[in-house]
């Protein structure tokens, strides 16, 4: 009986959290859920508990918080710049200057440069974000979507570019909606959820449909084009070719790595009732289409090619049996993007690739795909937004960043073969020198995994280290400018980024090796990364922290319950942690194609084997853990972290703290710079305090 008394004397005085005797029987397994009462954010008991957690966080001695805050803020004064979108001689782009809280959308035309959408002008509180935007084909009108307070519930508006006047909107329920303008700018296709009173209770985040909207008419009168009777969790893509001839509609069940695809000839069928022709249906592959100015249909697909390929066919014969390889699958690199430059004697295709998440661009003859060269790039980093003028040309633009380079936009001229800087991030900052190594290590089953290790240039001996990972949804961990990483390394720490299975660094097979029943591979890859960093003298377990958000929050949640002795500290942000009930909250039902469903016996077994909340054990010395969650997060409900925090605070035998940072008026995605700085400062100070970095600086 002595041990519990000692534990109670040394650990922080956590807010009381009652343990309810709730046990579900699922497929013959008893599933306890003692903190289910924390699922109701409106309950007075929950509000009181959250307030007490905030007070506990405020009392935590986080060394160096103001120093970290100041340095992150300085490094974010680099600002940012986005790639241009062209409409004739007019182009649109995003830019954030050093003093701005949000990036602003600008247009450049014969009148010069002017701001079109400034989120701070719309809302000086900084809580409004610009979620997406799309000019019409002539560059006269702009559809844009905004949301408030981090809820990502986008409302769609239309703006007249010449006058700057908002001529229509808002149209609500447009979260994640593409906008596909028809020529002339009088109408567009878009995606909207059904009204809450038209769907079962609790399903108002689902049930999307594709509509045709005519400018100046009520949105509720819009004609439904597609989606009736299909899967409730479907996401839809919609686009219209530049000449208005072809409509494309895609459908994906949640975040599944596959889609169904149709096209319609808008010259032979009415816009409000297009005749859809199937390109692929019930096929386990992802495919997208581009209608070339040369009349060919370009097919970007991972069908029979997990690393991606580009095929060609005719729009009149879009079926798989007619596809012909233009850019075949590469043995190592993953195909990410392409652009066509046809204002040349011999038109070319630029093809973007990633090789272990490092980007490159090759040049190919458009006629037969033969490689003829490469596009010079500024370094070993990340390329994004490869684009050309819609009407053709000899120029392409792409974004570039790496670990020490704020975002830039590069211009490639196919006539000269040269790449030049087109636009840089507008701020001037002194970036600390760092050393980046690309290392390879073996996971538990012998699989080779790659990792980027960023350290001070004079690094030697074991140092406080943060290991970051994600490992899901085919998302790659690529190099990029990060004020938080640079601040940590400048202070004397090491930052490692593991390219775990479940990501997209090596194509779709790599993704599938870390999803559904293979999810444990992702956690094993992280543990192996930690062991490699320790074995090679980079750090020690007493100096090693792990960090992850969203699916990466699930990653570190599983890691701290599976190998608590391996890690000194954990930052777990916006996480999924109750994997038995995750489908019932936020957008959880759209992710069962990635994780599996507790309603299916076999899939329940996968989830039950690692669900972090259910693997907390009383009397274990858990690492210091900081949960950071956002009250307006409509993707991953904060209840996951609330329940896990309560469970760990009850169970841990360590005096290392379990803390909860619960932020209001913030969500899963975009946020103002000041909110970003405050969050980063708290996270870095926590990590420094519990890995010893604070004592070195």
TrEMBL record:
UniProt domain Peptidase S9 prolyl oligopeptidase catalytic: residue ranges: 481-692
GO annotation terms (biological process): proteolysis
Keywords recorded for this protein, A-Z: Hydrolase, Protease, Serine protease
Segments forming domain Peptidase S9A N-terminal: 15-423
Key word Ribonucleoprotein present: no
Cellular component annotations (GO), alphabetically ordered: cytosol
Top enzyme category: hydrolase
InterPro entries named among the record's database cross-references: AB_hydrolase_fold (IPR029058), Pept_S9_AS (IPR002471), Pept_S9A_N (IPR023302), Peptidase_S9_cat (IPR001375), Peptidase_S9A (IPR002470), Prolyl_oligopep/macrocyclase (IPR051167)
Annotated coiled-coil segments of the chain: none
Pfam families, A to Z: Peptidase_S9, Peptidase_S9_N
Record EC number: 3.4.21.26
Catalysed conversion reaction: Hydrolysis of Pro-|-Xaa >> Ala-|-Xaa in oligopeptides
Gene Ontology molecular function terms on file: oligopeptidase activity; serine-type endopeptidase activity
Source domain of life: Bacteria
UniProt record similarity statement: Belongs to the peptidase S9A family.
PANTHER family the UniProt entry points to: PROLYL ENDOPEPTIDASE
Name of the protein in its database record: prolyl oligopeptidase
Species this chain originates from: Acrocarpospora pleiomorpha
């Amino acid at each position: 009986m002595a041990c519990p008394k000692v534990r109670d004397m040394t650990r922080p005085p956590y807010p009381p959290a009652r343990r309810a005797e709730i046990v579900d029987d699922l497929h013959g397994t008893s599933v306890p859920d003692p903190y289910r009462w924390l699922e109701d954010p409106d309950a007075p008991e929950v509000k009181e508990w959250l307030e007490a957690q905030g007070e506990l966080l405020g009392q935590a001695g986080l060394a160096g918080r103001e120093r970290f805050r100041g340095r992150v803020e300085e490094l974010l004064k680099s600002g940012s710049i986005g790639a241009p979108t062209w409409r004739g001689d007019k182009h649109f782009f995003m830019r954030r200057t050093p003093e701005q809280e949000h990036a602003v959308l600008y247009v450049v035309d014969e009148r010069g440069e002017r701001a079109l959408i400034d989120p701070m002008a719309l809302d000086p509180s900084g809580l409004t974000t610009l979620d997406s935007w799309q000019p019409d084909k002539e560059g006269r009108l702009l559809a844009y979507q905004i949301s408030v307070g981090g809820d990502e519930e986008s409302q769609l508006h239309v703006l007249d570019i010449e006058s700057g006047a908002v001529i229509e909107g808002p149209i609500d329920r447009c979260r994640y909606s593409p906008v596909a303008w028809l020529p002339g700018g009088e109408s567009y296709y878009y995606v909207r959820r059904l009204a809450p009173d038209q769907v079962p209770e609790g399903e108002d985040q689902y049930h999307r449909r594709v509509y045709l909207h005519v400018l100046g008419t009520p949105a509720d009168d819009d004609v439904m084009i597609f989606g009736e009777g299909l899967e409730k969790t479907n996401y839809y893509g919609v686009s219209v070719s530049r000449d208005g001839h072809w409509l494309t509609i895609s459908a994906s069940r949640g975040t599944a790595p596959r889609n169904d695809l149709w096209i319609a000839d808008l010259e032979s069928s009415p816009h409000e009732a297009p005749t859809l022709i199937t390109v692929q249906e019930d096929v386990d592959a992802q495919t997208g289409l581009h209608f070339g100015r040369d009349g060919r249909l370009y097919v970007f697909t991972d069908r029979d090619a997990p690393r991606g390929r580009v095929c060609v066919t005719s729009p009149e014969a879009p079926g798989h049996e007619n596809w012909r390889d233009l850019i075949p699958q590469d043995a190592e690199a993953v195909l990410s993007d392409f652009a066509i430059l046809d204002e040349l004697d011999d038109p070319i295709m630029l093809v973007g690739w990633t090789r272990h998440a490092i980007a490159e661009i090759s040049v190919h003859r458009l006629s037969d795909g033969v490689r003829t060269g490469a596009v010079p790039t500024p370094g070993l980093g990340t390329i994004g937004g490869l684009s050309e003028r819609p009407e053709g040309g000899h120029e392409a633009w792409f974004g570039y960043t790496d670990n020490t380079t704020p975002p830039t936009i590069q211009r490639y001229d196919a006539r000269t073969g040269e790449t030049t800087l087109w636009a840089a991030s507008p701020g001037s900052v002194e970036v600390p020198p760092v050393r980046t190594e690309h290392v390879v290590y073996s996971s538990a089953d012998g699989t080779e995994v790659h990792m980027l290790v960023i350290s001070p240039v004079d690094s030697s001996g074991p140092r406080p280290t943060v290991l970051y990972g994600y490992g899901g949804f085919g998302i790659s961990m690529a190099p990029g400018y990060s004020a938080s990483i640079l601040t940590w390394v400048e202070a004397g720490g090491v930052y490692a980024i593991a390219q775990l299975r479940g990501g997209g660094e090596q194509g779709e097979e790599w993704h599938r090796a870390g999803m559904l029943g293979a999810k444990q591979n992702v956690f094993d890859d992280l543990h192996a990364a930690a062991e490699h960093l320790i074995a090679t003298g980079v750090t020690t377990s007493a100096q090693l922290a792990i960090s992850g958000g969203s699916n990466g929050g699930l990653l570190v949640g599983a890691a701290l319950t599976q190998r608590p002795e391996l890690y000194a500290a954990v930052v777990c942000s916006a996480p999924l942690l109750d994997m038995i009930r995750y489908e019932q909250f936020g957008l959880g039902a759209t992710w069962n194609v990635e994780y599996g469903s507790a309603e299916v016996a076999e899939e329940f077994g996968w989830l039950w084997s690692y669900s972090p909340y259910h693997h907390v054990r009383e009397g274990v010395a858990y690492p210091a853990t900081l949960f950071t969650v956002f009250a307006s997060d409509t993707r991953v409900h904060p209840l996951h972290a609330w329940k896990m925090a309560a469970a760990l605070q009850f169970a841990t035998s360590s005096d290392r703290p379990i803390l909860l940072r619960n932020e209001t008026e913030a969500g899963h995605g975009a946020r103002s710079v000041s909110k970003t700085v405050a969050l980063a400062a708290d996270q870095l100070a926590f990590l420094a305090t519990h890995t010893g970095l604070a004592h070195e600086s």
